[in-house]
């Protein structure tokens, strides 16, 4: 449920009683498979089957005629999950609705219903936009790292240098900048692994490529 809820938030769970379950509510329910309680958001509340199929065993009348609520199917999903939960719930499966969460000394309300749906939609929209921006940034970054074109901006004392550390059985090649390790040579992949954003300042074509670990 991150960012709506996260460990170690203290949750205030209120039983539904006779109140209806609404799409957008954040609910708590037991999971027999995981042997724990789960807190997810309700994404839909629908009749579990046609009303005509539910008749009183005594009178034979339809539940709608008797004025009784028809059975409903409740679907849930975590705000940070891409897919809905497989298990379909009934109102009796719910321990209650999360109405508030305390994080440290701050107590905040947890919105349900239409307001809760807006919260869930805004989270999904934010993730989608972030994904697009991250993709664009990755393309720009990949185009900029070619040739370490920003290395000239570094003063001499900060420019990267390759250092060989001798181990018991192998020699380890590391790339240092101002005394900090920013990369190393991977013998298995036969390539240099350099941390972001330091690849902007390193021309990998000029780095040594050993033939073996010896």
Tally the beta strands. 10
- Globular, elongated, flat, extended or rod-shaped: what is the shape? elongated
Biggest β-sheet: count, sense, barrel? 6 strands, antiparallel
Radius of gyration: 29 Å
> On the 0-100 scale, what is the average pLDDT?
81
For the termini, the CA-CA separation is: 49 Å
Query: What is the domain tally?
Result: 2
**Would you identify the regions where 5 or more consecutive residues have pLDDT less than 50?**
51-68
Order of helices and strands: EEEHEEEHEEEE
Provide the structure class. alpha+beta
Write the layout of secondary structure elements.
Elements: E1 10-14, E2 26-31, E3 36-47, H1 63-66, E4 72-77, E5 94-103, E6 106-109, H2 113-144, E7 161-166, E8 171-177, E9 180-186, E10 191-194
Antiparallel strand pairs: 1-5, 2-3, 2-5, 3-4, 5-6, 7-8, 8-9, 9-10
Description:
The chain has 214 residues and is of the alpha+beta class. The protein folds into two domains: 120 residues, no CATH class; 59 residues, no CATH class. Helices cover 17% and strands 31% of the residues. It is built from two helices and ten strands. The strands form two sheets. Strands 1, 2, 3, 4, 5 and 6 form a six-stranded antiparallel sheet that branches. The longest helix is centred in the middle third of the chain and has 32 residues.
């Amino acid at each position: 449920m991150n960012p709506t809820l996260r460990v170690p938030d203290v949750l205030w769970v209120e039983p539904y009683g006779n109140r209806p379950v609404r799409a957008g509510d954040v609910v708590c329910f037991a999971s027999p498979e995981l042997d724990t309680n789960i807190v997810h958001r309700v994404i839909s509340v629908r009749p579990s089957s046609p009303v005509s199929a539910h008749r009183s065993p005594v009178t034979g009348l339809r539940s709608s005629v008797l004025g009784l609520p028809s059975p409903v199917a409740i679907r849930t999903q975590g705000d940070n999950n891409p897919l809905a939960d497989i298990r379909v719930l009934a109102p009796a499966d719910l321990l209650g609705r999360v109405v508030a969460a305390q994080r440290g000394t701050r107590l905040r309300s947890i919105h349900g219903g239409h307001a809760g749906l807006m919260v869930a939609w805004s989270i999904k929209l934010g993730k989608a936009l972030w994904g697009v921006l991250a993709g664009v940034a990755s393309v720009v970054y990949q185009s900029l790292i070619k040739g370490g074109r920003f290395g000239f901006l570094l003063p001499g004392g900060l420019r990267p240098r390759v250092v060989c550390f001798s181990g018991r059985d192998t020699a380890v090649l590391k790339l240092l900048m101002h005394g900090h390790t920013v990369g190393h040579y991977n013998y298995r992949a036969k390539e240099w692994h350099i941390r972001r954003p330091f690849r902007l300042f390193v021309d990998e074509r000029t780095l040594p490529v050993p033939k073996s670990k010896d």
